[in-house]
Design a protein that fits this description.
alpha/beta, Quinone Oxidoreductase, Chain A, domain 1, Rossmann fold, 2 domains, 7-stranded mixed β-sheet, 6-stranded parallel β-sheet, 9 helices, NAD(P)-bd_dom_sf, zinc, metal-binding
Amino acid sequence: MKRTHRVLQLESYRSPLVLRERRVPDPGPDQVRIRIEACGVCRTDLHVRDGELDEARLPIVLGHEIVGRVDAVGPVSERTMPDASQPADDTGPALRVGDRVGVPWLGWTCGACAFCRRDEENLCDRAVFTGYHRDGGYAEYTIAESAYCFPVPDTMDPTHAAPLLCAGLIGYRAYRLARHSLRGFDGAGEAPSLRLGLYGFGAAAHILAQVAIHDGHEVYAFTRPGDGAGQEFAKELGAAWAGDSTATPPSPLDAALLFAPVGSLVPTALRAIRKGGSVICAGIHMSEIPAFPYAILWEERTVRSVANLTRRDGTHFFEKIATIPVRTEVETFPLEQADEALERLRSGALRGAAVLVPGRTTD
């Protein structure tokens, strides 16, 4: 008899998730099956459920911050790279049963389009995303492409590692883009201390704050108006200042990173940065950006977005945090309470990140 496992799937937009029993899937060529230990709850999941990202394959199992053990390995096929300039990590080391891995948002890329060929696979024309185009981690098992998994050390607690797979990765990509857009960095990205504003102090910002502070930068945390608990949390992690998102920081920022999906924060952040500063929009979805005067963009200020991630981002990020005592703050929920976790995320009631912990399977 085939084993079964429980999944929570989205069957229609703006509706509660539905608990279903499915057969445990078998991995195909170049794939692995993963027994899930933990899956983070990301704001992208909320955007998908709300129909704000409406190209999901329905029904779909949400979740793309997955940590688990390789349970089965599919057959290996040869993959001919289209260009010798492709990053070497495209093939990666072979995965074995028992390996602990992380599965991110980026689930597959074609390797042949113009973006893939110039090391911009995050913009691949045919990219497949976990928990959006293919089933993700709100389940007890999932299937992933071997070459798109990241190794997760056995010493890491899976519930604390899960938020690193998107909140950490996207935050780090936004951080790197912010630094590299500013004058004064050499080829290695080193520079004097910068003032970085983080708008929306949730899962991504609380991880990134620790990385930036470790690198010697000043962090200014902006929360929902009146969120004193969130501001205190930011200060506990070492923020130089914390206040409402509508407040003017005590000093002009070098860069502002927006994790809150609120378009009106773009002109607010532009007013908070110095000449030549950058505003980085790190979310996959944002409410409409209101019109603003050219004067607050002038003087070589920039606004740009972050889209998805590359595997190179992941490699750099996990190498980086191996040297930093990053502490992820998590609140755990059983699989059946995913809707509650999503609503707590929406309301801003979480301190850090929500993580689902699946239960048993049946024969």
